[in-house]
């Protein structure tokens, strides 16, 4: 157990704050993804993080939005009940409550320049760009680089190095 | 039955108190801490986030899953708990969990779960795994859990205590529970660690651990420890208070020493693990009518294994895990007896036990309907106990039995997501033994999440224990005990309801109610035909009980657990409460950071109610307090911890067994331990 003095979260303490950690990951992803110039969310303005379905994060995304900006951009959190409610987002987390309807959701959103994230088994294989899973008591994620590329997103190599790659992108990035 | 009413009222009162405390704490904690946590998380880098831990369990369903999704009541004890509470052995760790307790007869530690721990048994009804490798031996079915332990507790990352039947996945021994020890990786260390400790009764211990990451996919860990304890200079047993037996005082007879080595090497998909422990213990209790106050009476136990594991995702939806292992267990006992001529005869017993085995486990997920609701796991296992040797000699060799046995098994488990919030987990395993034949054991559980943060589980499972080589083949050549090779397995049927409730981000409540019925328990009896002791499938036991635990874990570093268990475990025929079966167990653990991240004060209170003894008397209930002060990074990678066990010097005793003249065996009073750990 390396002795970093970064607070109890790093002191090798098991926590139950799985979704707090996943929320923090979502914020980080924003710094490692480049959206296409013509994306409907617009550049330079606020960064939009959406949650589709039952929100497992509680107040954590909002608290993070208050605590932190991403590369100088403010973060706005939006919540959507159904896929038809969705307005353009930079990052959209598809809650496990929507896992049954993943097919239609992907059909609707798969082509738009939104980084799709989830935490349901096989989601990445089915076309979600970033999918969380738990391994050795830690939060890990897999990336479908091919699908992200098709959506016009560029994921930095630093993020890819940390991920398990489900479908590689073309030519690397 | 009437007399149980007030008792029930007690239980309800306890549960209500738990709830009230929980809700109060919830109100006070919530808003401030989300913000605090958010601020803290916002500052972490991506790499740091990758290292934050969450609460998961592996062994409940043979894959990593959240505790609330596991088909069982699960408690997790982490490395942080071990450091903060100063746990010394796996027995200490397991006994801190609701419904679990340990007894010590000054030779071995014994685990009790849900009111079952018969004196004289060797812990054969709890299966202990180290990173999934079975460590119960193949002659006594006994797992190394006390100072005879694998691996050193400092190498434990977490311990998963899964109560209830596990034979549908793991086969024999998983009757009352499965304890899975998950070890640390070399990369957790990245360097060397040197630890030294000194404790009461002339006890010293040293440990060296080395660990490193190898490239991006590799990892190596090596650790060696040596421990030596002189034990209490004198122990007094009033049963031996006679001039002929040193007035009941056993001098320097309680020594304990062990050495252990643990190594793990991971290269890509392959992990090789090697473990070895050897432990020698003096027996101060004059068990088995040996000579009182004689240092020659002692046991030596050895246990080792090599385990080669390969794991690979064959496709996105198919994972395969293969394991090949070799195991060794050895025991040597020497027992000093007075012979008829007034001299001393040292009788010796040895067992030697070797086996190898292999297992292959496949896990399937599916992308397309209708199978995308399934998570299928199946596997096969083969074990060849190629050496099971029992040997004994006093004036002549009286025991020399060699046997070999094999077991083949196949299991299947399906997790079916019936609804978004309802999962059915059904599994079955068939074990075919070369000794008694076949046994099939199912387990079914329904897991329901009615609201966010609430989980309800309903479980049924059957589990078994194969009769072991000791029970089938041990004899002393017609003097007092004979063999019984025709023993059949004992079985247990368990029903259970579990409620898990997240009360706040930081506070969790788990409660369960269970009932089990154990049949054909392998029990030592006197055969009226020849007056010889013999193991027979003779006993039955049934139990009903409840367990509850409130666990809190706050960002400030404050953590605590409050656990309570009630069980009525009784003999099926007589209706009498079982021996060494406490009705009430309560545990309170509180760990307070005195200086944030640097200094922790942790206290533990353990209450055990009175227990019936072998001779139908009772040992009194007791409450023991332990206290540990743990300083982290005191000076350039130096950690220090000071523990006081049995802080208030409470006198208490565990029930003795049939091999003891003592009704009760007194346990240690107040003892100390100082531990220093330096990282390089």
Question: What does it look like?
Answer:
- The complex is a heterodimer of chains A (173) and B (680).
- Chain A is an alpha/beta fold and 173 residues long.
- Chain A is 27% helix and 25% strand.
- Chain A has one domain (14-165): Rossmann fold, CATH 3.40.50.
- Chain A has helices spanning 18-32, 60-67, 102-109, 123-126, 145-150, 157-162, and strands at 14-15, 33-34, 47-52, 75-80, 91-94, 115-118, 130-135, 138-144, 154-155, 164-167.
- Chain B is globular, with a radius of gyration of 25 Å.
- Chain B is built from six helices and 38 strands.
- Chain B has a 22-stranded antiparallel beta barrel. A five-stranded mixed β-sheet of chain B has the order 4-9-10-7-8.
- Helix content of chain B is 9%, strand content 56%.
- Chain B has a single domain (4-679), classed as TonB-dependent receptor, beta-barrel domain (Maltoporin, Chain A, Beta Barrel), CATH 2.40.170.20.
- Chain B has 680 residues and is mainly beta.
- The interface between A and B is large, with 55 and 62 residues.
Number of domains of chain A: 1
Average pLDDT of chain B, rounded to a whole number, is 90
Give the fraction of residues assigned to helices of chain B.
under 10%
Shape of chain B: globular
Round the Cα radius of gyration of chain A to an integer and report it.
16 Å
Run of helices and strands of chain A = EHEEHEEHEHEEHEHE
Question: How many DSSP H or I helices of chain B?
Answer: 6
CATH fold-level topology of chain B: Maltoporin, Chain A
Topology (elements, then pairings):
The complex is a heterodimer of chains A (173) and B (680).
Chain A: E1 14-15, H1 18-32, E2 33-34, E3 47-52, H2 60-67, E4 75-80, E5 91-94, H3 102-109, E6 115-118, H4 123-126, E7 130-135, E8 138-144, H5 145-150, E9 154-155, H6 157-162, E10 164-167
Parallel strand pairs in A: 3-4, 3-5, 5-6, 6-7, 8-10
Antiparallel strand pairs in A: 2-9, 7-8
Chain B: H1 4-42, H2 46-49, E1 53-54, E2 56-57, E3 65-66, E4 73-78, H3 79-85, H4 90-94, E5 100-104, E6 109-113, E7 126-130, E8 133-134, E9 156-163, H5 167-170, E10 177-183, E11 191-199, E12 203-214, E13 218-229, E14 234-236, E15 249-251, E16 256-267, E17 270-282, E18 298-315, E19 318-338, E20 344-365, E21 374-393, E22 397-419, E23 422-433, E24 437-448, E25 454-465, H6 469-473, E26 490-504, E27 507-527, E28 532-553, E29 559-571, E30 584-595, E31 599-608, E32 611-612, E33 618-619, E34 622-635, E35 638-645, E36 653-655, E37 664-666, E38 671-679
Parallel strand pairs in B: 7-10
Antiparallel strand pairs in B: 2-3, 4-9, 5-6, 7-8, 9-10, 11-12, 11-38, 12-13, 13-16, 14-15, 16-17, 17-18, 18-19, 19-20, 20-21, 21-22, 22-23, 23-24, 24-25, 25-26, 26-27, 27-28, 28-29, 29-30, 30-31, 31-34, 32-33, 34-35, 35-38, 36-37
């Amino acid at each position: 157990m390396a002795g970093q003095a970064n607070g109890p979260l790093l002191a090798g303490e098991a926590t139950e704050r799985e979704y707090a950690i996943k929320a923090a990951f979502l914020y980080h992803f924003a710094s490692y993804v480049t959206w296409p110039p013509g994306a409907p969310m617009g550049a330079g303005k606020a960064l939009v993080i959406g949650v589709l379905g039952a929100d497992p994060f509680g107040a954590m995304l909002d608290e993070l939005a208050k605590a932190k900006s991403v590369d100088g951009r403010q973060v706005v959190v939006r919540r959507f009940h159904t896929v038809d409610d969705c307005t353009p987002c930079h990052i959209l987390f598809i809650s496990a409550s929507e896992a049954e309807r993943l097919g239609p959701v992907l059909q609707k959103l798969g082509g738009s320049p939104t980084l799709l994230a989830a935490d349901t088994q096989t989601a990445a294989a089915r076309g979600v760009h970033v999918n969380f899973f738990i391994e050795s008591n830690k939060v890990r994620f897999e990336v479908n680089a091919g699908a992200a590329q098709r959506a016009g997103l560029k994921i930095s190599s630093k993020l890819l190095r940390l991920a398990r790659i489900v479908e590689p992108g073309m030519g690397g990035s | 039955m009437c007399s149980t009413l007030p008792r029930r009222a007690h239980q309800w009162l306890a549960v209500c108190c738990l709830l009230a405390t929980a809700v109060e704490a919830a109100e006070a904690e919530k808003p401030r801490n989300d913000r605090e946590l958010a601020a803290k998380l916002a500052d972490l880098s991506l790499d740091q986030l990758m290292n934050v831990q969450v609460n998961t369990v592996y062994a409940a369903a043979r894959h990593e899953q959240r505790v609330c999704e596991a088909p069982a009541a699960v408690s997790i004890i982490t490395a942080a708990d071990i450091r903060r509470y100063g746990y010394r052995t796996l027995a200490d760790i397991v006994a801190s969990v609701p419904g679990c307790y340990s007894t010590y007869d000054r030779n071995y530690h014994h685990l009790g779960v849900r009111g079952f721990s018969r004196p004289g048994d060797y812990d054969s009804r709890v299966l202990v795994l180290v990173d999934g490798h079975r460590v119960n031996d193949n002659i006594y079915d006994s797992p190394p859990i006390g100072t005879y332990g694998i691996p050193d507790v400092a190498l434990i990352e977490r311990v998963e205590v899964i109560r209830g039947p596990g034979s549908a996945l793991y086969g024999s021994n998983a009757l009352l529970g499965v304890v899975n020890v998950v070890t640390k990786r070399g990369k957790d260390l990245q360097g060397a660690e040197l630890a030294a400790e000194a404790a009461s009764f002339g006890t010293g211990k040293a440990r060296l651990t080395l660990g490193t990451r190898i490239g991006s996919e590799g990892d190596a860990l090596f650790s060696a420890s040596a421990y030596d304890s002189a034990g209490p200079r004198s122990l007094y047993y009033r049963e031996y208070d006679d001039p002929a037996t040193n007035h009941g005082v056993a001098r320097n007879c309680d020594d304990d020493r062990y050495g252990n080595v643990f190594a793990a090497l991971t290269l890509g998909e392959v992990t090789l693990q090697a473990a070895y422990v050897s432990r020698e213990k003096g027996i101060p209790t004059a068990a088995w009518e040996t000579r009182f106050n004689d240092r020659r009476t002692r046991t030596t136990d050895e246990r080792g294994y090599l385990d080669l594991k390969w794991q690979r995702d064959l496709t996105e939806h198919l994972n395969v895990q293969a394991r090949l292992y070799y195991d060794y267990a050895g025991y040597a006992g020497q027992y000093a007896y007075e012979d008829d001529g007034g001299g001393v005869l040292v009788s010796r017993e040895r067992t030697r036990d070797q086996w190898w085995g292999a297992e292959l486990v496949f896990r399937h997920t599916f992308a397309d309907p209708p199978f995308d609701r399934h998570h299928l796991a199946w596997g096969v296992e083969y074990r060849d106990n190629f050496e099971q040797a029992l040997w004994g000699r006093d004036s002549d060799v009286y025991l020399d039995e060699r046997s070999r046995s094999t077991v083949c098994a196949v299991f299947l488990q399906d997790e079916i997501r019936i609804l978004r919030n309802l999962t059915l987990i059904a599994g079955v395993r068939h074990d075919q033994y070369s000794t008694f034949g076949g046994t099939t054991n199912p387990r079914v559980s329904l897991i329901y999440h009615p609201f966010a943060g609430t989980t309800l589980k309903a479980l049924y499972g059957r589990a078994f224990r194969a009769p072991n080589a000791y029970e089938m083949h041990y004899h002393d050549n017609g003097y007092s005990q004979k063999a019984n090779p025709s023993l059949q397995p004992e079985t247990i049927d368990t029903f259970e309801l579990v409620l898990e409730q997240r009360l706040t981000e930081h506070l969790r409540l788990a409660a369960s109610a269970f009932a089990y019925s154990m049949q054909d328990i392998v029990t030592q009896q006197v055969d009226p035909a020849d007056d010889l002791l013999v193991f027979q499938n003779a006993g039955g036991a049934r139990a009903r009980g409840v367990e509850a635990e409130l666990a809190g874990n706050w960002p400030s570093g404050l953590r605590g657990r409050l656990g309570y268990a009630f069980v009525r475990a009784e003999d099926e025929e007589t209706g009498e409460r079982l021996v060494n079966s406490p009705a009430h167990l309560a545990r309170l653990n509180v760990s307070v950071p005195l200086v944030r991240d640097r200094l922790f004060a942790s206290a533990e209170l353990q209450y055990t109610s009175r227990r019936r003894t072998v001779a139908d008397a009772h040992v009194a209930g007791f409450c023991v307090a332990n206290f540990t002060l743990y300083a982290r990074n005191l000076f350039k990678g130096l950690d220090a911890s000071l523990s006081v066990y049995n802080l208030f010097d409470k006198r208490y005793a565990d029930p003795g067994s049939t091999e003891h003249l003592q009704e009760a065996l007194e346990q240690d009073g107040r003892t100390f331990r100082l531990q220093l750990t330096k990282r390089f």
